[in-house]
């Protein structure tokens, strides 16, 4: 299963565990219900900013929602490939910001 689909499913499970509709959840995050619907269907990715906001608002860690590795380790490799492609598409300022964020996460 693709990483973004697992993330989508985890966000949907979390919203349902809160007993919230997509509309209520969207209101909490300051987005349109259609945005939440698209994320949960896996047709749109959640922005890093909204993912971080979601984690802060509900005291979650990123790895509570982000699948890091499956049983054979292939998911981690897929994430590394996806990140590598994203890095190639970024400008130097964006890469610098991401580098600082990663160093902050690592401690």
Describe the structure.
This protein is mostly helical. The mean pLDDT is 85. It contains seven helices and no strands. It has helices spanning 3-17, 22-29, 33-41, 48-57, 62-65, 74-89, 92-106.
Topology order in helix (H) and strand (E) letters: HHHHHHH
Low-confidence stretches: none
How much strand content do the residues show? under 5%
Number of helices: 7
Which bin fits the share of residues in helices?
over 70%
Structural class comes to mainly alpha
Major sheet summary line: none
Average pLDDT: 85
The count of DSSP E runs of length 2 or more, i.e. the number of strands, is: 0
How would you sum up the global shape? Answer: globular
Distance between the termini: 30 Å
Radius of gyration equals 15 Å
What is the strand and helix layout of this fold?
Elements: H1 3-17, H2 22-29, H3 33-41, H4 48-57, H5 62-65, H6 74-89, H7 92-106
Helix pairs in contact: 2-3
Which features characterize this protein?
about 110 residues, single chain, globular, 7 helices
Question: What is shown here, in short?
Answer:
The chain has 107 residues and is mostly helical.
């Amino acid at each position: 299963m693709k990483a973004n689909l697992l993330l989508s499913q985890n966000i949907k499970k979390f919203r349902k565990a809160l007993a919230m509709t997509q509309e209520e959840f969207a209101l909490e995050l300051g987005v349109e219900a259609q945005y939440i619907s698209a994320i949960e269907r896996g047709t749109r990715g959640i922005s890093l900013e909204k993912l971080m906001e979601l984690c802060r608002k509900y005291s979650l860690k990123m790895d509570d929602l982000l699948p890091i590795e499956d049983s054979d380790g292939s998911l981690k490799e897929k994430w590394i490939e996806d990140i590598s492609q994203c890095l190639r598409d970024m400008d130097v300022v964006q890469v610098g910001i991401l580098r600082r964020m990663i160093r902050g996460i690592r401690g």
